[in-house]
Amino acid sequence: MSEKEPSICEEKIYNELFRKYYEPVTKYIYYKCGNLHQAEDIVQNVFIKIWKLCATIIYSKAKSYIYSACNHSFLNEVAHEKVVLKHQKTVEEHTNYESPDFLIEVDEFRIKLKQAINMLNPKEREVFLLSRVEDKTYKEIAEITGLTVKAIERRMSKALRELRDLLGAHIKV
Amino acid sequence: MKNYDNDDTFLGRWIAGELSDEELIAFKKTETYKQFKLINRESQLLDGPDIDVEKALHDVKQKLKQNKPKTIRLWQTITVAAMLIIALGVFFNSSKTYTNAIGETQTIVLEDGSKVHLNANSSLSLKRFFWSNNKTVNLDGEAYFIVTKNNDFKVKTSKGIVKVLGTKFNIKDRSYFELKCYEGKVKFSQLSDASSSKILTQGMQIIIDDNLVEDVLFKEESPLWRKGVSKFDEQPLHLVLEELTQYFDITFDAHNINKNRLFSGSFNHNDLDLALKATLIPMGINYKIEKQTIILSE
What we know:
The structure holds two protein chains of two kinds.
Chain A: H1 11-33, H2 36-52, H3 62-77, E1 86-87, H4 91-94, H5 106-119, H6 122-132, H7 138-145, H8 149-167
Helix pairs in contact in A: 1-2, 1-3, 1-6, 2-3, 5-8, 6-8
Chain B: H1 10-15, H2 21-29, H3 33-44, E1 46-47, H4 53-93, E2 95-99, E3 106-109, E4 115-118, E5 123-127, E6 136-146, E7 153-156, E8 160-164, E9 168-173, E10 177-183, E11 185-190, E12 197-201, E13 204-209, E14 212-217, E15 229-236, H5 237-247, E16 251-253, E17 262-268, H6 272-280, E18 286-290, E19 293-297
Parallel strand pairs in B: 6-7, 16-19
Antiparallel strand pairs in B: 2-5, 3-4, 4-6, 5-6, 6-9, 7-8, 8-11, 9-10, 10-13, 11-12, 13-14, 15-17, 18-19
């Protein structure tokens, strides 16, 4: 017999779930809607619901419950806005390329990259950011979005092609 | 040769490191490889928004604290109040219905002393409480009303509203509508044309058949059905058959006869056998009784 599942109604377990999933889910919703305030609202409301329904949610299913509930409430609000991305603090170290590959200033290129990402179709943007910024594997993205790995490969490919179309002119080959 | 142009998963697989060696070598030779590589590298340097998880957890706990007792108490109050209102509403708005089965008649005496003689296979309904404030009754079927004087009394039927001021009248609301005034005055407003209303005095009647309104005069002093008799004067046979089914629990199979032939005559409500003989034989119609069904042929 398998061990009994921990109960989400226990505050300790609930806090643990919250600390584990709040950030990644919020980012996921943010990448979809581009409004951090809205994303936090959606996710917090889902967590409030989880506390109220704690007895009915199985611990091992919590992750998929959280993601799909957030996704659901997002779909009800639908408003895609631009995503604001920033650069990691470590960026400085990476900028010393042996030969400059850009036809424009690095900083300028980075601004253009962020703009280009925002020009992507939201469906591709979401997959692209989960993969590149959040370092999620396709399998993880598939679980989160409910898409197949194949579909994610396709969206990823499309996103990259579009980014190159938008930015290629600024990169020296 | 597969590449990013003709394979829509190519770049995706490249990112995931799932290209075959040949695919990768060929890809690296292309002019655009370097561009993709740069885009990929630069994208990986990006960061999402900063999120304060502990603050969010605190916020959620606060919301739960504020929310819980308030919503539940409010919710309970609302539910209880709503149920009470509905229950009271249902109670005071409830209506009383008198229903007669086939062949039954009954007399109802209303609060104000008015009498309603309800004919067979008919029903009368009225509000159980505060009826005197708005004296309205709903009639389905046939009834003879004797309303006390100086009385604002209304009868709603499927064809229209009959307004009364102390009078005796009979309403028959079956496959056709018939209103006869035996004493006093009634005002009839048709449902389909509320603006036009007619006033009937003693000996006047209105017949509505197929939306055709007809004014006729009559002579008898009280409805014949009160004496247990139905009488017809050149009326189509289907009305006669309908009338028979109001007093006797039977159905007719009238496939093989012409139901529009006119009948003049009468039948008594207390004997099925005699009633059938009185109506069908003069018309030259043969009948066969099978359980509750009377099969007719010419």
